[in-house]
Amino acid sequence: MAAQPYFAPTYFSSFYFGGFRATPPLSIGYGEDAAFCDQDAFEEMKRLFEATTAFGSVIFAANGERGEVYSGSPPLLVIAPTRWLETKELDPEQIVRQVEFELVLIVKSVETRDRLVETSRLEAIITHTLENAKLGDPCIPAMTHLTSARHDWRCKAPEHRLTLEGRFAFFIPR
Question: Are 134 and 150 within 8 A, CB to CB?
């Protein structure tokens, strides 16, 4: 869209504003022309985990819901975004957006050993599904991976939680 002339209020001289031009409003890209965004990658991630059929439920947690009690059939996998970072280190014309997330795996079983075996099995499925996954067109598969995991030993039986942290990255075209 070409820049349009800026129409100053009539009480200012046209020379006061000189050649200033108003910039067109920023398009946020909803609709058919929408650019790829974090949510697109998270939806693809959810679809990939659901396709494994290893989980009773796969849900996406909105802001602030990660600590809540989740409803869903176990084993339950909760996808929660945590932060993002944009850099121009590779190319000044392209921005790389790195998005960090948590996957909270909730397993229920009466026996402690069974909970740990099931947690380990599902962790392997998550790792295999996510490592180098292509979460959308501009995503960089080599930058899609898990970075750490921690067991939550404070959970009361028969529940066990494992929180996996990971990240993915994609190019934001200019």
Answer: no
pLDDT digits (tens, 9 = 90+) for 16-35: 555 555 544 444 444 444 57
Asked if residue 128 lies in contact with residue 99, where contact means CB atoms within 8 angstroms, the answer is no
pTM of the model: 0.73
Contact between residue 24 and residue 70 where contact means Cβ atoms under 8 Å apart: no
Distance in angstroms (rounded) separating the CA atoms of residues 9 and 31: 35
Residue with tokens 């944009």: 86
Phi, psi of 41 (to 5 degrees): -70, -40
In angstroms, the Cα distances linking 104 to 1, 50, 115, 119 are 45, 15, 15, 11
